[in-house]
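Can't attach files on this board, so I'm pasting raw text. These are the components:
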Amino acid sequence: DAKTTQPTSMDCAEGRAANLPCNHSTISGNEYVYWYRQIHSQGPQYIIHGLKNNETNEMASLIITEDRKSSTLILPHATLRDTAVYYCIVRVGGSAGNMLTFGGGTRLMVKP
Amino acid sequence: KAGVTQTPRYLIKTRGQQVTLSCSPISGHRSVSWYQQTPGQGLQFLFEYFSETQRNKGNFPGRFSGRQFSNSRSEMNVSTLELGDSALYLCASSLVVRGELFFGEGSRLTVL
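---
Top answer:
Structure tokens for the assembled complex are below.
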């Protein structure tokens, strides 16, 4: 799987949008971008994924650049409960199955 | 529906002992993956099972083993425990291989 680079930590004011960047400059054409988050002492939680088009669900939006070398996860109105470590993962299909490679992630702190 | 259930949630062992951890996936999910999380190494893939067959294995010594039963429940075993095996062990299930992963709360193992 391609390697990802994320900032170690970020702060965001409650109610504002949180924009979490991820660099995946070596991504291949068949690799998806996945985002998970882990709230303290809990298992990671799936947020969203995409291949090349922007995606939106009830939790977040995912913006992928046209060259697919980077992406941004957007939490439109961050709350204190969004404080967590956010992981950006690129993932191939096929035989790699569910073997995910987690990096260090971004520790997002939402402040009142 | 019920989420991924891991037992036990907490356990303490001493060096040289062995441990077995259990994971019950979400009903209908046939793929189960295991991950180890430590402060130093982060989240690392251990192995993945689908329909009772190991599909992928991470870079861990042979002391780490697992299996999956016909009802998709899975167990992992660590023999001859070392201090460095102290970690949060996370199980994740998905409906199909390369599907969205749902993680359990984890089993926190402390080796003394």
